[in-house]
Write a structure and sequence with these properties.
Blueprint (H helix, E strand, L loop, with lengths): L10 E4 L2 E3 L2 E3 L4 E2 L3 E2 L4 E3 L2 E5 L2 E5 L7 H9 L7 E5 L5 H4 L2 H7 L4 E4 L1 H6 L13 E3 L5 E3 L4 E6 L9 E5 L4 E5 L20 H12 L3 H11 L6 E4 L9 H11 L10 E7 L5 H13 L5 E7 L6 H9 L2 E5 L9 H9 L9 E8 L5 H11 L9 E4 L4 H18 L15
Parallel strand pairs: 8-9, 9-10, 10-11, 15-16, 17-18, 17-19, 19-20, 20-21
Antiparallel strand pairs: 1-2, 2-7, 3-6, 4-5, 7-8, 12-13, 13-14, 14-15
Helix pairs in contact: 8-12
């Protein structure tokens, strides 16, 4: 039996609502960072109303021909009055410039953020007057059907929005609630098991924007959703609210309580010196009430198990020896994992032992700052075996870091001469 998406014809989602996207089963990585063992789909949709047709998103440019053939099987270009782009990324906007040319009567509806970003996508000059920004709650009519917009920024670009087909309860969710999973049968009740891909997509795309995920859920969960049509992966027609709830679970906070702050101290040690420093950092932090301190030796450890801890932590301290003028690889691997979660505004600090030059500590501090962590306490470096005075500095590093977490640190006096 042929799969639903295997031909070049549009696929009926609901009467008058069609999938006109493209399949990319051979894709094995997306944006470099994601593994796509099952490929992906670029989902686009056509919605017919009594007074016109709306096209929701397009496809990657290399699949434009397939997209147009499917679209032409259900609509004439002169019928298209509305184009909605929920997200500017090229895998959704690749066919947009040509679609604007083929459908000269259509107006393009995007978020205000997208409106400001579009000039980086293509030459908007000839169609400037046809681009209309929409905010949460704005509606457009197709006659007997209407589309309602919800601004959902940072899912996962600043421009993203969701679009709701009100009469049918269809949420066109963009990348939100999607996944990289290609199956020509298209619908979640017909395709293979894609639960891993759904969670994996959340972890690598949406997780750094967890606060924005929760805000979007607050907007859409009250809607009478009967079907979710994402921009990637299976169309969720069976139990769609289960997937919405799954996002709620994945984005939930597991903090120990507002009265408790958490400080994680990660270290790796060649000959025991950095380990000794780490113990004093942790001991100093434990002197401060209201701070829970955890100490982790990351030698030989995978970074993935620590990501959940990092996401919930308030402060992160890294200890690394300097080897060949650099911090050691496990520390850099740990720092790379910080891109998977939102660490902006968390406290960061560094320390470590060295033999000659001691670059590891300032290099780690610089990386923390570039990741938007606060680094209010200067790092501690000890040459070879730390002296009692240097261990006392480590203790103070831990104590001052903890005081910053609970808002009790002394105000700093900045030496302007030192900044010159």
């Amino acid at each position: 039996m042929p799969h639903a998406g295997a031909s070049h014809n549009a696929v009926t989602v609901l009467p008058g609502v069609h999938w006109v996207g493209a399949l990319d089963p051979d894709l094995r990585s997306f944006d470099i960072i994601l593994r796509t063992a099952n490929g992906t789909s670029y989902n686009a949709y056509a919605v017919r109303g009594s007074q016109g047709v709306a096209v929701i998103d397009t496809v990657k440019e290399m699949y434009a021909g397939t997209f147009f053939r499917r679209l032409e099987s259900v609509a004439r270009y002169e019928e298209i009055t509305t184009i909605v782009l929920n997200h500017l990324e090229p895998d959704h906007s690749g066919a947009l410039p040509e679609l604007m040319e083929r459908a000269p009567k259509a107006k393009l509806y995007v978020s205000p953020q997208a409106r400001n970003m579009m000039k980086g996508l293509f030459d908007t000059g000839p169609v400037e007057h046809r681009i209309i920004p929409v905010n949460t709650g704005d509606r457009i009519s197709l006659g007997d059907r209407s589309l309602r917009f919800f601004n959902t920024p940072y899912l996962h670009w600043p421009d993203t929005q969701c679009t709701f087909l009100e009469q049918d309860g269809v949420l066109f969710s963009g990348d939100f609630l999607g996944c990289h999973f290609c199956d020509a049968r298209l619908f979640n009740d017909a395709v293979g098991d894609f639960r891993f891909s759904f969670d994996y997509y959340y972890s690598h795309i949406m997780r750094p924007f967890r606060d924005h995920v929760r805000h979007a859920l607050d907007l859409i969960q009250p809607l009478p959703i009967s079907l979710v049509a994402p921009a990637h992966g299976p169309i969720l027609r069976e139990s769609p609210l289960d997937y919405v709830q799954r996002y709620r679970t994945l984005s939930a906070s597991n903090l120990h309580g507002a009265e408790s702050k958490t400080l994680l101290v990660f270290y790796i040690s060649s000959y025991g010196s950095t380990r000794r420093m780490a113990e004093f950092v942790a001991a100093g932090a434990e002197q401060v009430d209201g701070v829970r301190v955890s100490l982790y030796d990351i030698e030989g450890s995978e970074t993935a198990p620590f990501v959940d801890l990092i996401e919930e932590a308030d402060g992160l301290v890294f200890g690394s020896p300097t080897i060949n003028g650099d911090a050691v690889k496990p520390v850099w691997d740990m720092l790379s994992s910080l891109t998977l979660v939102n660490v902006k505004g968390k406290l960061g600090a560094a320390f470590g032992s060295y033999g000659w030059s001691g670059e590891a500590v300032p290099m780690v501090e610089d990386r923390l700052r570039r990741l938007k962590l606060r680094v209010p306490v200067a790092g501690v470096r000890a040459r070879l075996i730390p002296t009692p005075e240097e261990l006392a500095q480590c203790r103070e590093l831990g104590r001052q870091s903890a005081l910053h977490l609970v808002g009790k640190a002394d105000a700093r006096v900045i030496d302007m001469a030192a900044l010159g």
